[in-house]
Structures are given as structure tokens and as C-alpha cells.
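Can you give me the bound-state structure? Components:
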Amino acid sequence: MATSESCGREEKEMEESFPMTGGDGPHSYTKNSRQQRAAAASAKSMLTSGILENLVVEHSSKMFAIADLGCSTGPNTFIAMDNIIEAVTQKCKIKGYSSLPEFQVYFNDHVSNDFNILFANLPSDRKYFAFGVPGSFHGGLFPKASLNIIYSAFALHWLSRAPQELGDVNSPACNKGRIYYSNAPHEVGQAYSLQYAKDMESFLAARAEELAPGGLMIILMPGRPDGTLPSQNSLGPFIKPLESCLTDMVDEEIIRNHEIDSFNMPLYSPSMEELRKLIEKNGCFGIARLETLPPMSVSLPSVEECRSGFGSILRKHFRSEIIEQLFERYPAKIAGKPPIKASDGFTIGLFVILKRNV
Amino acid sequence: MATSESCGREEKEMEESFPMTGGDGPHSYTKNSRQQRAAAASAKSMLTSGILENLVVEHSSKMFAIADLGCSTGPNTFIAMDNIIEAVTQKCKIKGYSSLPEFQVYFNDHVSNDFNILFANLPSDRKYFAFGVPGSFHGGLFPKASLNIIYSAFALHWLSRAPQELGDVNSPACNKGRIYYSNAPHEVGQAYSLQYAKDMESFLAARAEELAPGGLMIILMPGRPDGTLPSQNSLGPFIKPLESCLTDMVDEEIIRNHEIDSFNMPLYSPSMEELRKLIEKNGCFGIARLETLPPMSVSLPSVEECRSGFGSILRKHFRSEIIEQLFERYPAKIAGKPPIKASDGFTIGLFVILKRNV
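Here's the bound-state model for the whole set.
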């Protein structure tokens, strides 16, 4: 007799977890996710037309399940779920269906995400049943073929972990004196690229199991232009001021060399070509859309935004006494710096719609 | 076109919410739910045989959804879910099915329940997909016919609110100088009984929608013997020491009269007869079992148990400065008091299995 195994959890527990800052204080993701919201808003019409053109919804469907993978604490996820439900409703109306399915929304993020604040802020006029799903999206989270739309916005650039060789002084991929791979030796970028490929492989395999035939997966994520090297990644400019604060603190002997050498941001932004190859290798999805988000200028993260996104991972690695100092230095690093423009050669956002092959 | 309305949430938001104490500190439910666990453990064989005898599970079932309504923060809910899955697995084996369904467990409690601690303690070797469901079980929580087993242990004695007339000095049901209905005028017990009937009506109506045909609802809850008055309720002796502390504090003019007059514990323990009538009135369920749990002696709640269960509701009503004093007095009230025995004339626990009529 086959048993329903422990649902991929062994895999998940080997990983690290770096949730956005919880609560609703000044450093919380709830209060510091304006830029992600603006990017998702710019994609609304692409999302609506993508659903209208590609979604298969049957007249007889009584339930319709949507999952937001890496939803964090809101409010961005609530806006996105409303947009998706609006588009599915529109599709049902166009088809002339006499009734709508009952919508279920599954809000997923790491176990350490602040689900209490997510639940406390659920819109009271929501038109769906709401569920929280704790766990890493690098493993399985749902029963087979149980989801109709999988959505993930600005979460899939988080790797399950930084490649381990980056911190190994004996490896050619050792990332000495840096926390990221911009301007790093080729081997460092390669190590990041390989980790990303491995993570996407397990991500796509899990989602292929969970998405019902005819269902859609909609992904918004940072990406870089085709034909560029990993080291020319689109996230580099946003991480540079933080790295610069840390290297200053190394120069001033506040942080020891080995502390910065062993810290690496587990983030990656693929090129479209790189992503296309990984999707094709998986083989379970057809690519309905793979394009760039409308170009927009993006400000460097404010100190609050930086803390909201990276506070958790920095506190985990560095001694707590240096964290306050770090963020005290940060505002001077970004003062007067202009926003990053798409025309600077960085593709800020990718928009992907995948269809589960029937 | 019919729209999927806002899923009964207007109703739910009118209610009050009194979650068990969260976190994992000394006053937490996680650390103070031993008695509830013992009662559920004593019911394990009834639960297993009840599932084996009554559950309809098809060979073709690929998914099997279980909900625990009023699950609090664990660990009791994890033990119960394992017991249920073990029994369903046993039933599948007896039937000779070649594969098991994929299990989903939906953990439900009020929005203000500590889901973060619930998720952090999810067993790593669990054989199910885990979801959190924030909201009151007095309203709808799930899509139609989406659940195979609904379980609720020691949660359904919580009313959606204390009857409002209890605090109204102009009502014959005004509950002056008491926080509960033991030894109260007939009208007070009646008001509680009516509120319970109203709450069970909405509870059963919601569950009738959500339970799949052939599915089971398993309820453990406090109850009193048939032929007794509401005022002879089984919870009275457990609340008496707390009431006694509060009335002492009124006598000493630490608490004002109106503060205690307007506070009433929103708890009720029905007789089997009373519960049977409400189930029959609803009409969607057949009663497979309605019996008492194995008799056991139950200690009066320790100060930690009392805080874990009632800390939230007391803090909501009384000035915070009296709460510490109240719990300082409490241990003296219970010192040397013997446990409540079933033979004292109180039926401590009811065990109910309902089958959704096909």
C-alpha cells in the first residue's frame, strides 16, 4: 500500500528561512512594501489579459483555488488576490456561466512568517475563503492537482540558501569581501546560477504536481536582460549600499573579515533565456507569457525597506550589536542617489504565465 | 449571476473572540492543556471505532480533508489529527484499498489565536498538508462539501458571546454579583440556554454546508446529565474559585459592582437531550453516537490553566491592574480542594458523532 509520504518536508527543513519583518511597526513589511506594490500594480492589465486569454475554467467548477507563494504579511497579497478573482469572475461572465465557483485563497510563506498579522489584516469584505499555508515553496505544499492558479510576486528571487562554496576559503567560488555577486569573479556568479537552477528545479517539480490541468502559474520576479552575465544582475544596485556599509565596517575593524566573507545574500535574478531553459527542462508547463514588466524607475531601498526585507537574515548572521550601527550608516549611503532606471541596462521585472500541460 | 458572497463574515465580525493564551510561556495554552489532552486521550478508542464504523471512504478518493475547529495552539490538536488519520488509514486498509488519499488538515481558530506558535510546532514527521484557517466557527469557513471529517474538542462550549440581557439591570435575566449561571435565577440559565441554541443553530447550518455527503462530524464537549437544569451545569465548579476571587474583590471595593455585574463567562454545557433536539431541528445530520466520555476525575484548574483559558477574556473586560491581583488570590481558593468526580453528579464530557445525510 502506498503511503502519503511526509510531503517533501525533509527537504524543506534543510533550508534556511528569511521572512520579511513581521508585525506592523516602522520596519515591518506591511509598512514597507510600496515598491513591490507599484510593480505588481503596473502588471495588473497583463495579469488580467493573461487570465482571460489562457485560463480554462469549466462551467461545472464549484471550487476555485488560488495560492500566493511567498505572500509575506500583506497588504500586497490582498490586492493581488482581488485582481485575480476579478479576472476569473470576468472570464466566467464572458463565458456566460450562470454561477461563480467558490474561491479559496491559500496564503503561503515560511513557517516563521508573521501569519498572525497577515490574518489580522485580512480584508473583511473578501470574496473568498482564506487559509494560511506555512512552509517553503521549494518543497511540496498542496495535494496533487488541487490548485487552479498559482501566483508568486517578488518571492522567487529568494534562493533556498546561499551556495555553500561562497563561504569556503578553499573554493574558487569563495566570495571574499562581498555579500553579493556583482563585480565578483565568474565562479561566484556561476555558483549562484547553479543554486538557482537547483531551486527552480524543485520549485517547478512541486508546482507541476499541485497545479490542476489547465491551471495557470503567474510569476512576477526580478530578472536581467538576455545576453548578460549573472554578475550583471538586476538586484546588484539595490544591495550595493548595504554591502558598502558592511565593507566600511570591516575597514574600521568593527566587523571581522570572516564575518563578511561567510555572509552572502541568497538572492538571484535570472535572464529570460535562463528561466526559459529551466521551464523547458521541467517539461510540465507551456510558456504562455515570458516578458518584461513595464519599465519603471525604482528607488534604492530606504532604510526601513532595507530592514523590512533583510533585517531577519542580517540578525541571523551578524552579532546583534552591529545591526543598529549598520542601519545608522545606511541612510548616508543612499542620500541623493537617483532611482535605478530600466534604461540603465537592468531589466527590473519579469512577468511569466505558465500553463500546466494537460 | 450568483456571486459567492462574503462567506458569512459579517456575522462573524459581530462576535467577540477570546482565544487561549498564545506563545509558549508559563501561561500559554501550549503549556496548560493537559486536562483537555487527558479527556481526548480517554476518547481515543471511541474515536477510532466511531470512524471505522461510520466513515464512508471511497477507493477513488484522492484527497481527504479534516478540519479541527477551535484547535488553539497545540499540542492537543496534533495528537487528535494523528489519531484521526490513523483511523482513516486503518479503514482504508480494512477495505483493501491499494492507496491512501492525500490528507489535508485545516487548523481553525479565531483570527486572534496564535497561529505563529501553532505553525512553529507542527510535527515535522506529519503525514498531511497543513493549513491555518482564521475565523469563528459560528460562521462559514470552508467551501461547500469540502470536508470529510470535522473535529472539535472542548471548543463548542464557548458561546459566540454572553447573552446581552445578563448585563442589563432592567432585565429579569440580569446576573448581578455573579460571572456564571450556577445558583443563578432561572432566567439567567434560560438566557444562556437560548444563546447556546442560537449559536448551535448557526454552527450546525455552517457545518452542514461544509461537510461532504457521507462525512463525519466528531465533537467532544462538556455536558451535563439529562434531566438536570441549566444551572446544574458541569462547568460551574471549575469557574467557582475564579468567581469567588472576584466577589471577594468586590467586597473589598477593589472591583466595582457594575464591573462584575456586566461580566459573564460565555460558556455553556448542554444536556444530551438539549443537544439532540438542536441536531434534530437542524435536520442535516444523523446521530451515530451521543454518549458520555469515560468518567474521570478532573482537578480544578491551576492558576496557569485558569490564565491560559480565561486570561484573554478577563483582560478584555477588567482593568489590567486588577488582573495580577486576581491571579495572586486564586491559588489560595483552590488549595486542598479535591478534583471534581463524575460521580458528583456532573457529566464532564460528551462524545458525539454526526453523519452528514446524503
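A couple of observations. Strands of chain B lie at 63-69, 102-109, 129-134, 147-153, 211-221, 285-292, 350-356. Chain B has eleven helices and seven strands.
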